C-alpha cells in the first residue's frame, strides 16, 4: 500500500520549489567562468594580482546577483518558508563544502599562477587539471546529496571537464581553449535561464500578494 | 459478500477520524506546516494551490482549534505573517495518520486479523 502521507516527499518538494528559479544554476555557471578565466588571462600576459582581482570580482558579482535575485524575484513570487532542523543541518553542510571548494580553488589557482606548480607549458596542466576535476566531482556530488538537487551531479562533471577539455581543445583539436570553458558554463547558464523563465511564468506577482504584504495575511 | 453491519468493527476507527484534519485542503496545509518550521500565506498558497480566500478560511478554523499558530513579524519594514503548526496540531496530524491507516487497513483487508479479506 502506498504511504498515506509521504511527508518526506512533501518536504523535499517544498525545498526543491525554492531552487526552481534557476538563480543557483546561473551563479554556478558564472562561477565556472570565474574559475577558468584565471589561466585564460594568465596565458594572455595579464599580471597575477589583476587576474585574481578579476576572478574575485566575477565571483562576487555572481553571488550578489544570486542574493539580489532571491530577495527581489523569488521571495515575492514564491513566499517565505522556514525549513526544519534536518534541512538546516543539511544546508549548513552544503555551505561548508561550497566554501571549502571555493577557498581551495582560489588558493590552488593563486599557487598555480605564481608559477609554483610548473605550469609553463600546457602539458604541465594535466596533473592539476586531474586534481581539480576530482575535487569538482566530489564537492558537487556532496552538494547534490545534501541539497537534494540532482542536476548538481551534472554540474560537477561539467566543472571537472573544463581543464581536460582545454588541453584537448588546444593539443588535439586546435581550437581556442576558451571554448572548453564557454561550453559547460553556457550549459549551466542556459539551464538556469530556462528555469528562471519558467519560474517567472509559473509564479506571477499577484494582487493577492500585495494584499497579503500590506495587511500581513490578507484577512483584512 | 455479507453487508457491513452498522455499528460493527469498522465503525469505531472511522468515527475517530478528525474531520477538521480530514478535509483535503486542510490536510495538505497541515502536512506542509508539519514538514517545515513555518511558512507565510503566499508560500502555502503556491504549494497547495489553494486560493488566498480559501486559505484564510481554513487557517481561521485551524487556528480556532489550536492547530495553527499565527506569528506576525516584520521583515525589514514589511509586515509578514508566518504560520506554524502547534504541538497540538502536530499531534492531531499524527493521530489522523494512524487512524486513517487503521481504517484503510481494515477496508483493504491488510490489517491484523484481516477480517475484511475476501
Silhouette of chain A: elongated
Helix content estimate of chain B: 55-70%
Please describe the biggest sheet of chain A, giving its number of strands, its sense, and whether it closes into a barrel: none
Helix segment count of chain B? 6
Structural class of the helices, strands and pairings of chain A? mainly alpha
Structure notes:
The complex is a heterodimer of chains A (220) and B (118). With 220 residues, chain A is mostly helical. Helices cover 77% and strands 1% of the residues of chain A. Chain A has helices at residues 7-17, 23-43, 48-78, 85-113, 126-147, 151-160, 162-173, 179-202, 207-215, and one strand at 81-83. In chain A, α2 runs antiparallel to α8 and α4 (85-113) packs antiparallel against α5. Chain A is elongated, with a radius of gyration of 20 Å. In chain A, 31% of the residues are buried. By secondary structure, chain B is of the alpha+beta class. Chain B contains 6 helices and 3 strands, in the order αααβααββα. A 3-stranded antiparallel sheet of chain B has the order 1-3-2. In chain B, a hairpin with a 2-residue loop joins β2 and β3 (78-85). Chain B starts with 10 loop residues before the first helix and ends in a 10-residue tail after the last helix. The chains are: A mainly alpha (220), B alpha+beta (118). Chains A and B meet through α1, β1 and α9 of A and α3, β1, α4, α5 and β2 of B. β1 of chain A pairs antiparallel with β1 of chain B, so a sheet runs across the interface.
Amino acid at each position: 500500500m502506498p504511504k498515506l502521507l509521504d511527508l518526506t516527499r512533501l518536504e523535499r518538494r517544498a525545498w526543491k520549489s525554492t531552487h526552481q528559479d534557476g538563480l543557483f544554476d546561473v551563479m554556478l555557471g558564472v562561477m565556472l567562468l570565474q574559475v577558468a578565466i584565471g589561466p585564460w588571462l594568465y596565458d594572455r600576459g595579464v599580471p597575477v594580482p589583476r587576474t585574481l582581482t578579476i576572478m574575485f570580482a566575477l565571483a562576487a558579482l555572481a553571488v550578489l546577483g544570486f542574493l539580489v535575485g532571491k530577495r527581489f524575484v523569488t521571495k515575492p513570487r514564491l513566499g517565505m518558508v522556514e525549513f526544519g532542523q534536518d534541512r538546516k543541518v543539511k544546508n549548513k553542510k552544503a555551505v561548508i563544502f561550497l566554501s571549502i571548494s571555493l577557498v581551495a580553488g582560489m588558493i590552488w589557482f593563486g599557487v598555480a599562477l605564481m608559477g609554483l606548480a610548473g605550469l609553463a607549458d600546457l602539458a604541465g596542466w594535466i596533473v592539476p587539471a586531474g586534481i581539480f576535476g576530482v575535487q569538482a566531482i566530489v564537492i558537487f556530488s556532496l552538494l547534490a546529496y545534501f541539497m537534494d538537487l540532482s542536476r548538481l551531479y551534472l554540474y560537477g562533471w561539467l566543472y571537472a571537464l573544463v581543464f581536460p577539455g582545454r588541453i584537448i581543445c588546444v593539443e588535439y583539436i586546435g581550437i581556442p581553449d576558451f571554448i572548453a570553458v564557454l561550453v559547460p558554463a553556457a550549459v549551466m547558464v542556459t539551464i538556469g535561464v530556462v528555469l528562471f523563465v519558467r519560474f517567472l511564468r509559473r509564479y506571477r506577482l499577484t494582487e493577492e500578494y500585495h494584499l497579503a504584504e500590506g495587511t500581513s495575511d490578507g484577512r483584512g | 459478500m455479507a453487508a457491513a453491519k452498522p455499528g460493527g468493527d469498522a465503525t469505531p476507527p472511522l468515527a475517530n477520524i478528525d474531520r477538521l484534519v480530514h478535509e483535503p485542503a486542510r490536510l495538505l496545509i497541515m502536512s506542509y506546516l508539519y514538514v517545515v518550521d513555518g511558512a507565510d500565506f503566499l508560500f502555502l498558497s503556491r504549494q497547495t494551490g489553494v486560493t488566498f480566500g480559501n486559505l484564510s478560511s481554513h487557517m481561521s478554523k485551524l487556528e480556532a482549534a489550536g492547530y495553527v499558530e499565527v506569528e506576525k513579524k516584520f521583515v525589514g519594514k514589511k509586515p509578514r505573517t508566518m504560520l506554524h503548526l502547534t504541538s497540538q496540531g502536530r499531534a492531531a496530524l499524527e493521530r489522523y495518520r494512524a487512524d486513517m491507516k487503521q481504517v484503510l487497513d481494515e477496508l483493504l483487508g491488510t490489517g491484523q486479523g484481516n477480517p475484511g479479506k475476501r
